[in-house]
Amino acid sequence: MMDDWGHTTWGYGGVFVWLILLVLVGVVIFFVMRGDKWIKRGGEESALEILKKRYARGEITREEYDKMKKEIE
Known about the structure:
Shape: rod-shaped
Strand content: under 5%
Number of helices: 3
Largest sheet: none
Helix content: 55-70%
Structural class: mainly alpha
Radius of gyration: 26 Å
């Protein structure tokens, strides 16, 4: 039921519940809009990381590394 001021039977506690829910929804929207930048998925490597590893293992020369790096960036 509502009184003359529009508060529910929960009183001000109901207002705080709604505020907490709104903040949580805002946080979720914020992280969804940022995409996967904040999540480092296991097993996925960027092309540059793979290129660096190949160069470190000696699979490619410095010239090949520099050329491929320019193409990636």
